[in-house]
């Protein structure tokens, strides 16, 4: 300012000194932030932290309000007009008065919570009693995996049962969340018995004619309540004795459909009148709910050996396009033939696409290790939880991981200083802490066996009726069945060995289930010990509220009989099944990580490796020591090999 008013030589010198001083301080500040950034990178640059992933991905998501309707009924789209006014801001920032605070506190009920999530949680707690078992999304205790598994089980036998031919219909709802009619939704809530007060809170202050807002914690529950009408109408079709559905196993209950939010699979037959009834239900649902089936994206599937004339007849009734197996449902391929490599090409492409997005980043070995452990190895987990891909697919993924880890340039090959079989061991056993996808797959199928044995659902009931109707799951023999069932049986022995049943209703089998904590008594007792097969349920060993001591002595040897008398307790609760616990975990619940520890490939632990990977030591130092100890350093001798 002074130089502009009086541009003299003296003032110019003063200005230059001030500018020089400013540059000096800016340089000092820049060095400070540079050092601080360096320390952050040193501490978190190679670790599995939000800082690291934000650097690698640099992604941000935004939720925008495009337009709003004014009180006069005019739609406002101008962003400036959508903004709050000064009066609004003043009111929003105003501190509440004592009277307002007192009024709010005294209006709280025992069911209220300190944030809006409590309202949603209360609604979610009653959903299992309102929503049909066909719907598994947003309902506590139900799983996406069971939907996929059950679909695969049914499709596996698509040719074996059903006269006329079986049909699978995959529905695509056009913008399902955005099209729900609020008039219809509120009517559904009233029919389900919700109070007027609840319905008013659900409709909120911003009136809408259709659509539930995605991102609102209450929206998922409201959406599946609105979709429940379709489920009940489809299930009601079986009350019509002339209706012919999908051919199911002999002892299984009829099943019309499965739904995961708006992803719906219908199981039908090519019987024209029955198929027409399904389409009539879908048409009525569209009219009353505001939903619309996208016929261009919806499709039907039948066995390839069905006559072309029948394909055309089904297409004429449904108006949908003919699809071919395999098709993708909830991220997994559904097929009835043997596993083929090309069924899993989408997974390979996704992994390669993710790698390609990182190629421009300069990543250290530590950064690559973090990305492999936290991102790449997580990508196949969804599929491994349900399907067991062919070995060559898992081997191909391992090769992709190894190339990414050892590569030092954008294209071309680099030397692999250690095999992947050595890298996927835990660090204390000489590896880098990666996991073999084969081991992960086995742990996932162990979890499926646990869910099958300990939960009641559409899937577990179907599996029980299909494979275990005549024999207990613990003794059923290997035989023909889906690949998922055979893989579950491969983990049966390890999982059953760790389950102990807490007696509630005493329906546990005496000989083949672990209710004493000693293991299945059939295997615990000596081979020459006579087994009384007339006794089956634990309830038969009791007299009233106590053990039948005489029968215990007659049935078991002295050691086991005494153990039962002293250590096995019965907590009778009418209406409850015997409750399973998993012995290795304190909570008694199944954990994939503990199953992986039992089922994985192992090596002997080494104290030297533990010292290399001390917590807090930068990865590059530990990794260098690991390579030095393992003789995987780029020395002249190594290059000459």
Write a structural description:
The protein has 641 residues and is α+β, with helices and mostly antiparallel strands. Among the domains are: 1-30, no CATH class; 119-334, no CATH class; 612-640, no CATH class. Helix content is 48%, strand content 7%. The chain is built from 30 helices and 13 strands. The strands form 5 sheets. The chain has a 5-stranded mixed sheet with strand order 4-5-3-6-7, with helices on both faces. Strand 8 (327-329) and strand 9 (332-334) form a beta hairpin. Helix 8 (144-156) runs parallel beside helix 21, helix 13 runs parallel beside helix 14 (308-318) and helix 15 packs parallel to helix 18. It is globular and about 115 Å long. The N and C termini lie far apart (73 Å).
Report strand %.
5-15%
- The count of helical stretches stands at 30
* Rg calculated over all Cα atoms: 32 Å
- Helical content (DSSP H or I, runs of 4+): 40-55%
- Coarse morphology: globular
- Sheet with most strands: 5 strands, mixed
Head-to-tail CA distance between termini: 73 Å
Structural class by secondary-structure content: alpha+beta
Could you list the spans in which at least 5 consecutive residues all have pLDDT below 50? Answer: 59-63
List how many beta strands DSSP finds: 13
């Amino acid at each position: 300012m002074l130089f502009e008013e009086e541009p003299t030589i003296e003032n110019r010198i003063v200005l230059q000194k001030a500018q020089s001083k400013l540059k000096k301080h800016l340089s000092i500040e820049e060095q400070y932030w540079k050092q601080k950034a360096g320390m952050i990178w040193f501490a978190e640059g190679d670790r599995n932290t939000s800082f690291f992933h934000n650097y690698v991905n640099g992604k941000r998501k935004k939720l925008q309000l495009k337009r709003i309707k004014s009180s006069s009924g005019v739609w406002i789209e101008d962003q400036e007009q959508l903004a709050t006014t000064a009066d609004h801001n003043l009111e929003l920032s105003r501190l509440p008065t004592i009277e307002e605070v007192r009024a709010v506190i005294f209006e709280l009920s025992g069911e209220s919570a300190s944030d809006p999530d409590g309202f949603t949680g209360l609604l979610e707690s009653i959903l299992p009693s309102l929503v049909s078992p066909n719907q598994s999304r947003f309902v506590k205790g139900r799983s996406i995996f069971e939907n996929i598994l059950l679909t695969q089980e049914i499709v596996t036998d698509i040719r074996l049962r059903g006269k006329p031919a079986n049909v699978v219909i995959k529905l695509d709802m056009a913008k399902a969340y955005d099209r729900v009619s609020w008039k219809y939704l509120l009517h559904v809530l009233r029919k389900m018995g919700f109070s007027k007060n609840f319905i008013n809170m659900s409709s909120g202050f911003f009136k809408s004619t259709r659509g539930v807002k995605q991102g609102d914690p209450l929206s998922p529950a409201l959406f599946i309540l609105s979709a429940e009408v379709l489920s009940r109408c489809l299930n009601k079709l079986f009350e019509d004795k002339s209706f012919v559905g999908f051919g199911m196993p002999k002892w299984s209950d009829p099943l019309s459909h499965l739904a995961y939010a708006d992803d719906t699979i219908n199981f039908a037959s090519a019987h024209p009148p029955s198929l027409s009834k399904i389409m009539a239900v879908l048409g009525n649902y569209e009219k009353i709910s505001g939903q619309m089936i996208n016929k261009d994206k919806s499709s039907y599937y039948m066995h390839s050996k069905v006559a072309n004339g029948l394909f055309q007849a089904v297409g004429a009734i449904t108006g949908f396009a003919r699809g071919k197996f395999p098709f993708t449902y909830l991220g997994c391929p559904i097929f009835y033939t043997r596993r083929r490599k090309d069924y899993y090409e989408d997974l390979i492409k996704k992994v390669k696409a993710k790698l390609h997005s990182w190629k421009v980043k300069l990543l250290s070995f530590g950064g690559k290790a973090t990305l492999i452990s936290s991102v790449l190895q997580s990508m196949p987990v969804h599929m491994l939880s349900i399907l067991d891909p062919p070995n060559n697919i898992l081997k191909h993924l391992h090769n992709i991981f190894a190339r990414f880890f050892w590569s030092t340039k954008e294209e071309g090959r680099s030397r692999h200083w250690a095999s992947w079989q050595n890298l996927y061991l835990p660090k204390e056993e000489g590896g880098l802490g990666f996991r073999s996808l084969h081991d992960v797959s086995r742990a996932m199928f162990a979890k499926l066996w646990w869910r099958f044995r300990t939960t009641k659902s559409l899937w577990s009931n179907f599996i029980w009726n299909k494979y275990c109707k005549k024999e207990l799951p613990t003794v059923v023999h290997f035989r023909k069945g889906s690949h998922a069932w055979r893989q579950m049986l491969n983990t049966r022995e390890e999982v059953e060995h760790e389950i102990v049943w807490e007696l509630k209703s005493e329906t546990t089998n005496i000989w083949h289930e672990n209710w004493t904590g000693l293991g299945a008594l059939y295997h615990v007792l000596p081979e020459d010990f006579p087994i009384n097969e007339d006794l089956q349920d634990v309830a038969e060993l009791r007299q009233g509220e106590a053990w039948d001591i005489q029968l215990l002595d007659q049935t078991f040897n002295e050691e086991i009989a005494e153990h039962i008398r002293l250590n096995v307790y019965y907590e009778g609760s009418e209406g409850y099944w015997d409750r399973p616990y998993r012995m290795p975990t304190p909570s008694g619940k199944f954990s994939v990580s503990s199953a992986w520890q039992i089922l994985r490939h192992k090596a002997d632990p080494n104290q030297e490796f533990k010292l290399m990977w001390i917590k807090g030591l930068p990865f590059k130092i530990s990794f260098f020591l690991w390579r030095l100890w393992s003789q995987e350093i780029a020395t002249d001798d190594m290059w000459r090999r």
